[in-house]
Amino acid sequence: MAPGRKGRIIRRTIVIALVVAASLTMEITGFIATPEALRREVSWTTLHTIVPLVFAACAGVAWAIGPSRLPARLMVVFPLVWIPLSFLRVIEHVSWLWPFVYGVHLWWAVLTGILVLLYPRGRLIDGVDRWIAGIALVTSVGYLLGVLLLGQPSPDVCDCTANPYLVADAPGVFAVIDVGYRLIGVLLAIVIAVRLLVRWVRGSVPARTVAFLMPIALIAWVITLATQAAAYASGGADLVLDTVSLVAIASIPVSFVAGIAHARNMRARVADLMRITREGADRGLWAESLARTLRDASVRVYWWDEERARYADASGEPLDDDTPAARRGDHGLLPVSSPTGMPIAVIRHDRVLTDNMRLLDGVSSALRLSVDNGRLRSEIERTLEQVRQSRSRILEAGDEARRRIERDLHDGAQQHLVSLGMRLRLAANQARDRGVEPLGVELDGTIMMLNQALKELRELAHGIHPSLLSSGGLALAVPELAGRCPVPVEIDVQPEGRLPEVVESTAYFVVSEALANVAKHAQATRGWVRAALVDGELELVVRDNGVGGASAEGSGMLGIADRVDAVGGRFRLDSEPGAGTTITVRIPLAGFTAH
Each residue of 372-428: pLDDT tens digit? Predict the structure, then answer.
C-alpha cells in the first residue's frame, strides 16, 4: 500500500472514530440527564443510537469505493447533527450554545435528502436537484436564525436558560416557523421520493438494477416522516412510527453503499468479459457478452468499416443517430479507438451507464485489448503459416537439389568411372597378352581401387537421394533401405500409388534415420516398419524391441521432428525403458502436388 494512501486511510479512520464518539456521548449523556419519568424506551433509544453508527460505517465504505468524496463526507457529518433532544438537558444552562444545537438538530434530514439526490452518481444530476438542495439549505439556515432570534424550547424539551440571542418573545410566530420548516421538509422529501420513483419506473433495466434499493428505503422514510410531522403538529406521538422511521433512515446509507458496490461489481465483470473474448474480438460474441455484462439488452456495438468509412454492427447495419431512442436521449455513445487514434468501434448503451465512467472506461479498455489480441493472434498465425510455407519450400528445394546432384553423379561421374574401369581392364588384358605381367598386376590393383571408389560414389549418391525412391516410391525404396539394416526388419508398406514427392522424401528419411538409431543404439533383435494411408494422411510407424529409453531431445529425433514439422506433420515418440521404441509420424497429403 502506498504511504500516501495509508495515511489517508488512517486520517479517515480517526475522523470517523471521533464522530462516533461525539454521537455516542450525546446519546448517553442525554439519556442520563433526562428524568426517568420522561425517558424514551430503552429499545427506541438504542435504535436511535445505532442510526448514526450505521451512517459512520457506510461512510468508511463509501470513502473506499464511492464515485466521489461528497457522499462519504455527508455520512460523516450526519452523526454530528443527529442530535437527540435529550442532549439539550445536558447543555440547558449553557445559554450561548443550546440555541445553536437546537437550531441544527433537524439538519440530519437535509443531509439525508441531499444524499438521496446524489445517488448513485455522487453528484447532483440537473437543475431541479440543485433547486431542491438549495431550498433545503436556505430553509435550514432560516430555521436556525428563527431559533436564535425567536426560539425558546418548551419545558418538555428542556429547562433551558434564557436565549441570549432572543430579539422578540413571539412563541406563536416561532411555532409557525417550526411547523412550517417541518412541512417544507416533508414536501421536499416527497418531491425527492417521487423523482426517484419516476426515474426507477421509467428507467431501463440497467437503471433499475443500479437503483434497486433506494426507492424502498426512501418511500418508507417519507411516509413515516409525513405521519410524524402530522403527529407533531397535533401534539401526539407514535412509538411504532418512530421506530419504522429510524429503520428507514438507517437503510438509506446502506442502500447507497449497496448501489455503488453493485456498480463496482459491474466493473469487476469486465474482467470476465476479457476472459470470454481473450481469443479476439468476435463481433457477434462481443455484443452478446457486453449486453450480458452490462445487463443492458439494448446495447449495440458498431464496428468501424474502413472501406465504407462508417460504423456498422456485426450484421452490417450502419449506426443511425436518428432513431427514436437517440432523439429522446435514452442512449449514449462510447467511441473506442486504438492508442494511435484509429477508430475501432462505437458502443451504444443505456444513458444511465454514462454516469459510471469507470465502468465504461473498463469496457473500452477491454474492447481495445480484445481487438489487439485478435489482431496479434492473426498476425502470429499468418507469420507461422509463412514460416511453414517457407520451410516447406526450403525442404522441396533441398530435395530437388539432392535429386539433381544424384542425377549428375549417376549420369556424369559414375559413367566416366565405369568407362575408365573398362579401359583399364582392356589395358590389363593387353599387357598380359604381350607378356608384361607386372604391368597387368599393377593395372588390376588400380581397377580394384577404382571399383572401391565407384562403390563409395554410388553409396554417396544413394544417400543424397535414392534412385529407387524417384523411380518406384516408398514401395521399392523402404524395403531396399531395410535390407541394408543389420537388424532384421519386417516391412509393411501399403500406400496406394505414388505420393507427393515431398511426402515420399520425408517418409524415406524418417525411416532411414529411425533404422540408423535401431542399428546403433536400440540393441534390438527385430524391427518393424509400417506405412499406410489413414484419413488423407500418411501414417508411418517404425518400431523395435530394443532397450527403449530414447530421448526426444536427441539429435536424431530432433532431426526427424523438424523434418516432419516442416511439412505440417505430427511426430510422436514412445520409448519406455525396457519396452522398445516406437516412432509414429503422420504427414498430411493435402497441399502438396501429386507425383
Answer: 666 667 677 777 776 666 666 666 656 665 666 656 555 556 666 667 777 777 777
Partners of 331 in the β-ladder:
350
From residue 347, alpha-carbon distances to 281, 287, 311 in Å are: 14, 9, 10
Of 440 and 41, which is predicted with more confidence?
41
Residue whose C-alpha cell is 458502443: 347
Q: For position 224, what pLDDT does the model report?
A: 60
> Residue 256's closest CA among 218, 214, 219?
214
Query: What's the angle, vertex CA 160, arms to CA 154 and CA 161, rounded to 5?
Result: 125
Angle CA(563)–CA(567)–CA(570) in degrees, nearest 5?
A: 75
Q: Which of 479, 525, 472, 508 is nearest to 585 (CA)?
A: 508
Pairing of strands 489-493, 527-534: parallel
Q: Is the pLDDT of residue 190 over 50?
A: yes
Q: Averaged over 201-223, what is the pLDDT?
A: 58
Residue 349's DSSP bridge partners are 332
Task: Give pLDDT, residue 327.
Answer: 43
Which residues make beta-bridge pairs with 491?
529
Q: Map grid coordinates 514412445 to a residue.
A: 574
Residue 520, C-alpha cell as written in the block? 546403433
Sign of CA dihedral 139, 141, 146, 147: positive
Instruction: Give the residue, 145 or 576, on which the prediction is more confident.
Output: 145
Q: Show Cβ contacts of residue 207 under 8 Å, excluding neighbours closer than 6 positions.
A: 199, 200, 350, 352
Q: Can you give the pLDDT at residue 328?
A: 46
The set of residues, in sequence order, having a beta carbon less than 8 Å from that of 233 and lying 6+ positions away, is 179, 182
CB-CB contact of 210 with 238 (8 Å): no
* Phi-psi category of residue 323: left, alpha or beta, with phi > 0 → left and psi -120 to 50 → alpha: beta
Cα separation, 158 vs 169, in Å, equals: 18
Q: Is 497 left (phi over 0), alpha (psi -120 to 50) or beta?
A: left
Between the two ends of the chain, the Cα-to-Cα distance in Å is 69
Classify residue 323 by its DSSP letter: S
In whole angstroms, what is the distance from residue 407 CA to residue 400 CA? Answer: 11
- Residue whose grid cell is 431501463: 204
Instruction: Decide if 53 contacts 19 (C-beta within 8 A).
Output: no
- For residue 436, give the C-alpha cell: 608384361
CA nearest to 571, candidates 583, 553, 554:
583
Percent of the chain predicted with pLDDT > 90: 15
Q: Are 245 and 225 in contact (CB under 8 A)?
A: yes
Residue 303: how many other CB atoms lie within 10 Å: 23
